[in-house]
Amino acid sequence: MLELYGQGVSTGIAIGTIRHYVNVSENVKKYKVEDVRTELERYRQGMKMAKIQLQKLYDEACSQVSKSESVIFQTHIMILEDSKFVENTEEIIKVRKLNAEYAVSYTAKMLAEIFKGLDDEYLKSRYTDILDAGNTLIKILQNKEQKKDAESKQPMIIAAKELMPSETVSLKKNTLIGFVTNIGSPNSHTAILARTMGLPAVTQIDKDLSEFDGCTAIVDGQLGKVYINPDKNTMALYHAKKERYNKQRDNLKRQIGLPSVSKNGQKIILSANIGMLEDIENVEANDADGVGLFRSEYLFLNRNSVPSEEEQFEAYKRVITEFKKSGVVIRTADLSADKGIDYIDMPNEKNPSMGFRGIRVCLANSDMFKTQLRALYRASVYGKLKILLTMINNTEEVNYVKRIIKSVKRELRAEGKQYNDNVQLGIMIETPAAAIISDELCSMVDFVSIGTNDLTQFTLAIDRANQKLEYSYEPYHKAILRLIKLVVKNAHQCGIPVSVCGELASDTKLTPFFLALKTDELSMAPSKILQVRAKVRETNTEMIPKLLKEL
Ligand code: PEP
Ligand code: MG
Prior knowledge:
The chain contains 21 helices and 16 strands. By secondary structure, the chain is of the alpha/beta class. The chain has an eight-stranded mixed sheet with strand order 1-8-7-3-4-5-6-2. An eight-stranded parallel barrel has the order 9-10-11-12-13-14-15-16. Helix 1 crosses helix 6, helix 2 crosses helix 6 and helix 11 runs parallel beside helix 13. The longest helix has 29 residues.
């Protein structure tokens, strides 16, 4: 048994088999080739080997699992043999004189995109197979050892050097039970995603994880520990621990249906943060009072082009309809260079979180932004939609967006398309600048939401993803709490509601603080809602005015 120590970023216990994830398609290099014939030959040889490997996997899987589950490998062979796949790849090599790995990666992504847009639900769902088949071939071309891709029903713990949000999203499968990575901070988007999915995760493991592929492991997301090939005693201990953990979770279920009201009768809305439509299930299971933050940028990941208006419309319509009574806050795309999107012109930046992101990208790509706004407004007729703008720093940006919204509405009217004229417009307060001028900003919008993740990193000048500085990423810093207090005061003076949607919203140590401030709403990972509700219900805010005075 081997014990590994890291940083727990999402609580819970996972017991299962490690599957080492190699970041393939994102790492594919693009370069010009001089000798096209040799490159074509290299591609064809790779193709042959890929087919042999997949056939072998099929035969092995047939003897281990059922035939129907093994068929996946045959499907992958068919994809690689498909004339469109072959012709497109060869054309990129021949005409554009580009390397084989890139040609395969490009073709797989392009075809996957076409499948994703199909009406047939079954065919639509096969787009990941195209990417997987492409990855098999790319690994061979890159000379990476092809490990048995466990498409089995085994509970799977994904181990990787680092996971981009786009990869974390694409990994979401029924059998996925936890994450272990070398790189990643508790405030990185991937950690947030793991918490949203309710999966235990440990990062910052200082060991090459590839050697543990196929090993049995225990992931303790609370203690930040990973056990490889655990011995009998440890296994028994963790099965018992897991049972206790599940019991605690079941106890929390008693909070379902109870109002989120403090002992002295103060109400607060507890809503959920989501990134994908699959999260809706979790929101409902945890009895959230609606969706307080839908990070729409996740719709933009793992693809080759901006999602079409229709695609976005369908996604927004689905969430809005699902939470018709409570309402949904959809944030306009917070895209940035570190989120792994290559179809928008976003050059690599040294500091993407302080760079070209959020509203800045939207305003610079007005067609993309308009498409999103059109989809949002069209979907607004299906329930209560609130639109939230991200990374706002000044009043000009808000005015600029308002002008765009006006023109979007004008267009929709001219086309005879319906929309709700009363969609509320809000902004995120994520920078000290926005917090300091929140008196002015609040007078321009219908609601505000405090993004404490970015607000903390910018106030303390500490990159939220920087592992080395984690010790001083101090969200309880007086400066942060004072800024939150200031924003809540300014919002209320303007007569608009204020919510907190950063990770601090789920920190039960701060629940009394948020209640004492009279924050209207806390929005958090669905799995945290019942815990916070329990804390709200045991808090008497009359006992804590001192807390605020001291700030
Ligand atoms: C935040 O900054 O607090 C926030 C909610 O946005 P994100 O974590 O997606 O940057
Ligand atoms: Mg943010």
